[in-house]
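Render this sequence as a predicted structure.
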Amino acid sequence: MRISEICQQTGMTKDTIRHYEDIGFLADIRRSNNGYKEYTSAHLEQLILLKRTKELGFTLKEIKGLADLFFAKKLTEGLMTQHLQQKEKKIDETILALQKSKEEIRKTLTGECQHSDQLLKTIRANKHP
């Protein structure tokens, strides 16, 4: 398959696929006699896995680890479940932190924050006439 076919099947851009290739997610890409890169069904499978795990919130480093396990046929259902549970826990922690930040912003905007007076003084002091 050529890169345009891979793009069509994955929904990724050529630049994205080339980036993943540059950072080592895709290996052993051969060139045809006319110089075009030829991608295999294994490359397509790697890109689909990468895209899906990225959509689930995994970092490129985490994805690389999962992909290495997957293609070494060492990624068991139990291990994947463990990774998903860890990611879910991190997402929950992020949501809680964001909710706390949002509440602090709301308190500041409504004047309920103990630091809102200081924030307003700082803003006023930095105004240019």
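Summary. The chain has six helices and two strands. The beta strands are 30-31, 37-38.
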